[in-house]
Specification:
Metallo-beta-lactamase, Chain A, 6-stranded mixed beta sheet, 15 strands, 18% helix
Amino acid sequence: MKTKISLVLIAVLCLSARGFTQVKKEIQWIGGPTYILKLGSFKVLTDPMLGPKSKEAFRIKIHPTTGEPNAAIERFSDPAEFDRSNIDLLLISHMHPDHIDPAAVEILDKNLKTITTAQGVATMQRWGFTNVGALEWSDTLTLQKAGESLKITAVKSMHAQEPLNSELGKGNGYIIEYSSGKSFFRIYWTGDTVWFDEIASYTKYGKIDLLIPNMGAPGNGKRGLDALQALKIITALNPKKIIPVHHTTFSHYAEPISVLQSELSKTKYKKRLQLVPLGVPEKI
């Protein structure tokens, strides 16, 4: 019996020495582009859309699919409840009205450390946020706690092909890298983008453990990812896991998430897709 216990202890010590310690990694989808990401003791909130279910959650200058001007966009379900305490970072991909809304501006702590685009800083400050910074493409921000590090790198996104992309304004995707001792985890969150060839070069950041693509195919894939474009990203970057957001919640999303599920079912990536239910914290 003592020999067996000794062998178990040795095995545990060996696993720990090799960096296989269990670090909490969790995502909670709030709806639309909004989710809570927990990596170790870090807690990140993204693109906060926190207004209730409504026939007119917001208005969009030109509807991406129908072309209707000043179009009202419906929210089909309330945002999930989540714990707003101890958020280390509010991470915003861009400042369109389907990525931050008046409810979020009212609800969120104005001292919350916030990263957005260079164009978004003045807007956030005008709304009363006091701790706002910008990341241009390739810029990095590193947050540190005792023994833990969270590195955020802004990467290029293209909301649409030109010339429409320039009209829509600049947005960010993000490489999110967590490390603690020998534990390491890397995420690529696409933000709102279509496929462009430079995405394939994001392998330079290293192995992608989790891809979080903004789906929904607004404009039928002309103003955001559809399933076939997402498959291009997946093929290029070969992520270990795929958790899509930015689908189902709002009426301007043109493609149901079942299309991505169907496309991936034909490929070697089918078991890597994880569709998280609204509001339920899921291990990643």
